[in-house]
Amino acid sequence: MKCFTRLITTFSVTTMLYLVFPQKAYAYLDPGTIGYVLSFIIAGLVGALFYAKRFWNKIKVFFKNLSSKERKI
Question: In 10 A of CB 23, how many CB atoms?
Fold first, then answer.
């Protein structure tokens, strides 16, 4: 367990150093790349909304049961 904790600490410190002192990338992002990333974000949001809508009745019943249990106490 001690070895695992040390490994996690080393990984965290290394990651922090890479984030604090970034290297120059010399890369080019064309306008199409921004549209591509934006489409992924929108697709993720629509997927999450569809998932929530699909299980909306289960969610309503869950919260209804929670509120009814609180009233009985």
Answer: 6
pLDDT tens-digit profile of 1-58?
A: 677 788 889 999 999 988 888 778 787 878 888 899 999 999 999 999 998 888 888 8
The CA distance from 41 to 44, in Å, is 5
Query: Do 7 and 14 meet the contact criterion of CB atoms below 8 Å apart?
Result: no
Q: For residue 27, give Cα distances in angstroms to 5, 19, 23, 64.
A: 36, 18, 12, 53
What sign results for the dihedral spanned by CA atoms 15, 18, 19, 25?
negative
